[in-house]
Amino acid sequence: MGQKELLMEKVYESVASVLPITAIVLVLSITIAPLTSGALVLFLFGALMLVAGMGFFTLGAEMAMIPMGEGIGVVMSRSRKIGVSLGCCLVLGVLITLAEPDLQVLAEQVPSIPNLVLVFTVAAGVGIFLVIAELRMLLKIPLSYTLCFFYGLVFLLTALAPENFIPVSFDSGGVTTGPITVPFIMALGIGMASVRSDKNSSSDSFGLIALCSIGPVLSVLILGSLYRPEEAVYRGAEIAEIVTTRDAAAQFAAGLPVYLKEVAVAVLPIVGLFLLFQLFTRRFHRHQIFRIGAGLGYTYFGLVLFLTGVNVGFMPAGELIGSVIARSEKNWLLVPIGMVIGYFIVKAEPAVRVLTRQVEEISNGSISQRSIQKSLSLGICISAGISMLRILTGIPVLWFLVPGYLISLVMTFFVPQIFTGIAFDSGGVASGPMTAAFLLPLAMGACQAVGGNILADAFGVVAMVAMTPLLTIQVLGMSSRIRRYLEKRRTAGEPEYVVSVWELEDCILYFDRETCED
User: Fold this and answer.
1) What are the pLDDT digits (tens) for 470-481?
2) I need a labelling partner for 446 at 20 to 30 A (CA). Which of 62, 73, 349, 506 fits?
3) Least confident interval from 15-29, 72-86, 146-160
4) For the packed helices 66-78 and 286-308, what is the interaxial angle rounded to 10 degrees?
């Protein structure tokens, strides 16, 4: 299949992903949350740019980001110089994080800490935890042990950080695992694990995103404890008044150069890394280099369209809808509306498409894209509903994060390891630019309307979105284990109803791997 046919296939997939959220906004705009004509035109133009941008980005990621990441991962794993390999991980983590466009947005929300200090703190956190992720793979430490240790450390540090600063710290983990970082780091993990032949190599290819999401949370919590920012007020973007379609076009024309520059700054370090890697290793042949070059071009063009459409078109609509619903007499409708939007919005995240496709490939089709997508949608549906409830009631985000993470960490000991890696990777992947540019403005608009604390209440949306997939995907893994256990009992000639609760409990609690797993 040629590149043109592949591109059209990706665009059709993008239409299917973006259409539901577009339809929801249109229905809301003519019923309980009317939008101005200008804001609606911005949204519709943004949706078109979203479709085209996702198509180009996913094609570019397959052609460039994934082969590059896998190639570098294979070479690093085969290297006998462990120190050099770990140093490369540190540099890769820092540079790729500095390249994330959403990181600058986060830095602007915390004026009490200098932007460069916050940006380099987050980048250092990702770099250090990418090193830890490789060490875990080399030493074959179970992912569940690693996650329990570091999340325990995270929640201990929340006692030292300012209360209003905690949601920003957790949100930083979601911000850094964006459309640039996710395809590259996921492919890096697959490349690292591919040189191993043991039974855990496929499950160990997941988990890098999970650990790299912890690094920013931990580092920003430490930074907040040192700086002790007493006030970090959210400064929302000023929305120009849109009266005509020409005004709307002018907004996109003004935003396009900004994202042309931002995405160039994001992609250039990766291009430089690839050129240095190729210069020293000569791993890729000429036709592969040309293909990767074309893929980087598609990635660049797709991200420019996507980010321009999301930030210029979707952000005003999200903030206005949230504000209008929260001011109405039936502001409780914010909860079910948020849940419906959350269910469909995750399908439009570009990095989610990369994750689900790689999961299906690594598992040889035993874990389908559809099952992962449904679990993610259910998780984001729950998190969006809880987030809207928090805005209306003022419940602290830790009341949900602490039990949610505790349950998910306990579950890591009872589900197949590959599901643990996928679940914790999904938490970082799901909280991408669509969440930051539509769901978060929706929460901010509602929070402003009810007079809430934006930093403490609205910012928890990203943290919640990153947490709930850990539960839903591990539940999928648990059901898969039980289903396979029952199937083996049936094939052994024993009917399903003979299997007792106690036998199932033994299977789950005591890791009867010969019976319960492949």
Assistant:
1) 888 888 888 877
2) 349
3) 72-86
4) 130
Say how far apart CA 129 and CA 172 lie, in whole Å: 14
Please count the other Cβ atoms lying within 10 Å of the Cβ belonging to residue 331: 17
Q: Which two tokens stand for residue 252?
A: 């996109």
Cβ atoms of residues 463 and 481 within 8 Å: no
CB neighbourhood size of 490 (10 A): 13
113: left (phi over 0), alpha (psi -120 to 50) or beta: beta
- Give residue 361's pLDDT: 76
Distances, alpha carbon 479 to alpha carbons 215, 231, 474, 475, 485, in Å: 31, 45, 9, 6, 10
pLDDT in tens, 258-271: 889 888 887 888 88
Burial of residue 138 (CB within 10 Å: 0-12, 13-18, 19+) is middle
Sign of CA dihedral 133, 134, 140, 141: negative
pLDDT in the model for residue 101:
63
Q: Which residues contact 83 (CB under 8 A, 6 or more apart)?
A: none
Flag whether pLDDT at 337 surpasses 70.
yes
State yes or no: pLDDT of 517 exceeds 70: no
Report whether 467 contacts 401 (CB < 8 A): yes
Q: What's the predicted TM-score (pTM) here?
A: 0.76
Residues 349, 351, 354: CA angle, nearest 5 degrees: 120
Of residues 417 and 498, more confidence is placed in 417
* φ/ψ bin of 22: left (φ > 0), alpha (ψ from -120 to 50), beta (otherwise): alpha
pLDDT digits (tens, 9 = 90+) for 215-272: 888 888 888 777 655 544 455 545 566 777 777 788 888 888 988 988 888 788 888 8
Q: What is the DSSP string of 205-265?
A: TS-HHHHHHHHHHHHHHHHHHHH--S-----PPPPPP--SHHHHHHHHHHHHHHHHHHHHH
Contact 414, 383 (CB under 8 A): no
**CA-based R_g, the chain, Å:** 22
CB 129 within 8 A of CB 90: no
Report how far Cα 340 is from the mean position of its chain's Cα atoms: 19
- Read out DSSP for 291-350? HHHHHHHHHHHHHHHHHHIIIIIIHHHHHHHHHHHHHSTTGGGHHHHHHHHHHHHGGG-H
Pairwise CA distance, residues 66 & 68, whole Å: 5
What average pLDDT does range 350-358 have in this prediction? 77
Distance CA 358, CA 354 (A): 6
Q: Average pLDDT of 141-168?
A: 83
| CB contact at 8 A, 262 and 138 | no
